[in-house]
Design goal:
The protein has 166 residues and is of the alpha+beta class. The chain has 4 helices and 8 strands; from the N terminus they run E-H-H-E-E-E-E-H-E-E-E-H.
């Protein structure tokens, strides 16, 4: 069965035989506003508690803001051969699908992406969507035993992902 399931080795590294590997990080321009909001919140708390405790909000809120941004961008999308395996597979977050079960693959952008994630979306489809990533791919699942008809995955490099799936 090829439905989305956890894959212990889902983070492919340079030595894992990855044909395609990308991390869906948040854009760099999210960092300054997030840290500015954390500083403003810390300053508000600082004004209410002068003295030794005044530095505590800065120590807690700035790393918390950075941790949230890192957590939001932790997801990886890749195609490769996991360590100790012989078959190539598509990995999207913790889900994986053998490449042999991949059918038609389409790149969806703009209005087509809105339609694919909205009115046309099958409730049983696997979706790994990150709104800060523009394009996505729609991947048909050929496994007859799998209730998941297709996957919709965000990717910054859809042509590289398509080439890796071929």
């Amino acid at each position: 069965m090829s439905s989305p399931r956890p894959s212990p080795g889902s983070d492919a590294g340079p030595g894992d035989g990855a044909d395609h590997d990308e991390r869906l990080t948040v854009p760099w321009w999210w960092w300054p506003p997030a840290l500015l909001i954390a500083v403003l919140m810390a300053a508000e708390l600082h004004m209410g508690y002068p003295g030794v405790r005044s530095w505590l909000p800065y120590v807690l809120l700035l790393p918390l803001a950075a941790a949230v941004l890192i957590w939001l961008g932790r997801v990886r999308v890749g195609v490769g051969t996991p360590s100790g395996e012989s078959a190539r597979e598509l990995r999207a977050g913790v889900a994986h699908l053998p490449v042999s079960l991949v059918g038609r693959v389409d790149v969806v952008t703009g209005e087509a992406k809105r339609e694919a994630l909205g009115p046309q979306l099958d409730p049983q489809a696997f979706v790994l969507h990150r709104p800060w990533v523009g394009p996505a791919v729609r991947i048909e699942v050929l496994d007859p035993d799998d209730p998941t008809p297709y996957w919709v995955i965000s990717t910054r490099r859809p042509q590289e992902l398509l080439a890796a799936l071929r």
